[in-house]
């Protein structure tokens, strides 16, 4: 459906999903994804799509996330730009994409909707999405409020969905890919793992911090606001947690200066790890190197093939 060689999709990462990242994943045989809101305007997004086209002749997609933001976003204009650009795969996330579906479908765009629950996945199927990306509680960024991990979500999705689905959250290696396929997914979506690659356009110190981290080094912010986000546990995240614990349902304005996305963007540029917050999944516990995207994708596919051919076929007593 997506015209890609390997069943590996790059997660839509704010400030990371630029042309360098996206083209590297697509050139490695996966599906790279530009994040629309990383570009300040729809016109800038059109420019970034062109830049990405100059770096790969393979298919790539655009992510549009619709969640609370500090500054209002002209979503209709971003959708219009995506359609005008001729992009053929769009990942939507955050809110029901129904208002935008007819225009995208008329333009021949395949829509992958990212869902953190089975009920949202079924809804996405019923409104005509082509595929869903099922995002477990392990994931980076916004895991929803249900706290169900992929060991449950994926088999449930396999039982209930008719459209294909991608497993998202907690994936970094061939074991994960083989497990996702075994549980009924058609591929995996990886954000955090692709952040820690040579081509990810973020400061080396951020990558090294993620290599050094364990699965215990993430924090869940904005629980009191029902807009939970999993981020890397640095001093800024700990400060936000302190405010949320002290005050119960928190006034977002009090934490906004600490968490605003532009500070995360500056952190990625400068490598000042305590300047803001950044999204990271529990899978940082499985990341211990900084390969190229091609090395990473090739390794994951080879590991999964070996596990499926050797191990899965031999462990059951016949
Ligand atoms: P931002 O600077 O506008 O906001 C920073 C964070 O605060 C975001 O997580 C946002 O959802 C949250 N937020 C903003 N206003 C809020 C409010 N009134 N109540 C509760 N929470 C609020 O966002 P950004 O960093 O520039 O990111 C742009 C978009 O990308 C946002 O919609 C953000 O949620 C989304 N995003 C998604 C992921 C993901 O999990 N897929 C990760 C990072 C960012």
Write a brief structural summary.
Helices cover 42% and strands 14% of the residues.
Describe this structure in words.
This protein has about 325 residues and is an alpha/beta fold. The chain has a domain at about 10-200: Alpha-Beta Barrel (TIM Barrel), CATH 3.20.20. Helix content is about 40%, strand content about 15%. It has 13 helices and ten strands. The protein has an eight-stranded parallel beta sheet with strand order 1-8-7-6-5-4-3-2. Strands 9-10 form a two-stranded antiparallel sheet. Strand 3 (about 60-65), helix 3 and strand 4 (about 90-95) form a beta-alpha-beta unit. The radius of gyration is 19 Å and the shape is globular. It starts with 7 loop residues before the first strand and ends with a helix. The model has no long low-confidence stretch (mean pLDDT about 95).
Q: Tags for this entry?
A:
alpha/beta; globular; TIM Barrel; 14% strand; 318 residues; two-stranded antiparallel sheet
Question: Which ions, cofactors or small ligands are bound in this entry?
Answer: nicotinamide-adenine-dinucleotide
The spatial strand order of the largest sheet comes to: 1-8-7-6-5-4-3-2
Number of strands: 10
Uncertain segments are: none
Radius of gyration: 19 Å
The average pLDDT value, as a whole number, equals 96
> What is the percent of helical residues?
40-55%
Please render the helix and strand layout as text.
Elements: E1 8-10, H1 19-27, E2 32-35, H2 42-53, E3 60-65, H3 75-85, E4 89-93, H4 101-106, E5 110-115, H5 118-127, E6 131-135, H6 150-160, E7 165-168, H7 174-182, E8 188-190, H8 192-195, H9 204-212, E9 218-221, E10 229-232, H10 235-247, H11 252-259, H12 261-270, H13 293-314
Parallel strand pairs: 1-8, 2-3, 3-4, 4-5, 5-6, 6-7, 7-8
Antiparallel strand pairs: 9-10
The site of nicotinamide-adenine-dinucleotide has 21 residues, from α11 and α12.
């Amino acid at each position: 459906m997506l015209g890609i060689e390997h069943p590996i999709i790059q997660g839509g990462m704010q400030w990371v999903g630029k042309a360098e990242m996206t083209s590297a994943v697509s050139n490695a045989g996966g599906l790279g994804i530009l994040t629309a809101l990383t570009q300040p305007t729809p016109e800038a997004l059109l420019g970034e799509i062109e830049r990405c086209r100059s770096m790969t002749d393979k298919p790539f997609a655009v992510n549009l996330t619709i969640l609370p933001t500090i500054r209002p976003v002209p979503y209709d204009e971003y959708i219009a730009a995506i359609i005008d650009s001729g992009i053929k795969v769009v990942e939507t996330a955050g809110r029901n994409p129904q208002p935008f579906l007819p225009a995208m479908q008329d333009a021949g765009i395949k829509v992958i909707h990212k869902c953190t629950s089975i009920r949202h996945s079924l809804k996405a199927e019923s409104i005509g999405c082509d595929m869903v990306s099922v995002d477990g509680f392990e994931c980076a960024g916004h895991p929803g409020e249900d706290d169900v991990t992929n060991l449950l979500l994926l088999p449930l999705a396999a039982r209930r969905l008719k459209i294909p689905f991608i497993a998202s959250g907690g994936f970094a290696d061939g074991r994960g890919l083989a497990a996702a396929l075994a549980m009924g997914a058609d591929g995996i979506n990886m954000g955090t793992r692709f952040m820690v690659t040579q081509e990810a356009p973020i400061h080396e110190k951020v990558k090294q911090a993620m290599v050094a981290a364990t699965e215990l080094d993430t924090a869940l912010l904005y629980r009191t606001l029902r807009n939970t986000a999993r981020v890397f546990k640095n001093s800024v995240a700990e400060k936000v947690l302190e405010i949320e614990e002290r005050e119960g349902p928190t006034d977002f304005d009090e934490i906004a200066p600490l968490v605003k996305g532009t500070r995360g963007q500056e952190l990625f540029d400068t490598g000042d790890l305590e300047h803001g917050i950044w999204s990271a999944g529990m899978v940082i516990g499985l990341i211990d190197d900084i390969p190229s995207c091609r090395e990473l994708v090739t390794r994951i596919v080879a590991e999964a093939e070996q596990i499926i051919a050797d191990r899965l076929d031999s462990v059951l007593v016949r």
